[in-house]
Write a structure and sequence with these properties.
The chain has one domain: Rossmann fold, CATH 3.40.50. Helix content is 39%, strand content 17%. The chain has a four-stranded parallel beta sheet with strand order 1-2-4-3. Strand 3, helix 4 and strand 4 form a beta-alpha-beta unit. The longest helix is centred in the middle third of the chain and has 18 residues.
């Protein structure tokens, strides 16, 4: 997320709990009529946000939600804070996808914002980023992919 801090089109708001952050993102999207972007921390963060994500689905709020996932090379050992993130939110979203390559970020985020804004709105789109797709050298690619989104 630090790579996006220099982007003028983004206004980053820090919240101390994912439930509050999800409520803020829901309120922003309802007030502006544009999809909001919410980033939560791993499986625990997604779980904390799910109550408000359920509300956003019921109220027709377009949102794009991302969550970090552990490095895929460690998932066999079921590390703490990992989980089936796309499955966890499946009942609340139009589309869920886990990104494994930085090169896929642009198309995935474009689809996520398009789907969130397309009728019927009210269901969030959830994108998961595996730990090995978010290496330090990839953050520049993440920012470039985000800049290519047309929202």
């Amino acid at each position: 997320m630090g790579a996006l801090a220099g982007e003028d089109r983004f206004h980053y708001v820090f919240a101390l709990h994912e439930s509050v952050a999800a409520g803020m993102a829901d309120g922003y999207a309802q007030a502006t009529g544009r999809p909001s972007f919410l980033n939560v921390h791993t499986a625990t963060g997604l779980g904390n946000a799910m109550g408000n994500l359920s509300n956003s689905r019921a109220t027709g709020t377009p949102m794009v939600v991302t969550a970090g996932q552990q490095d895929r090379r460690h998932l066999l050992a079921e590390p703490f804070l990992s989980g089936n993130l796309t499955g966890m939110a499946a009942g609340l979203v139009k589309w869920a996808h886990e990104v494994h390559r930085t090169a896929d970020l642009g198309p995935v985020l474009r689809r996520a914002f398009h789907d969130a804004a397309s009728p019927p709105t009210g269901t969030t789109v959830r994108v998961s980023f595996s730990g090995d797709s978010r290496s330090v050298r990839d953050f520049a690619g993440y920012a470039a992919a985000a800049r290519s989104c047309a929202w």
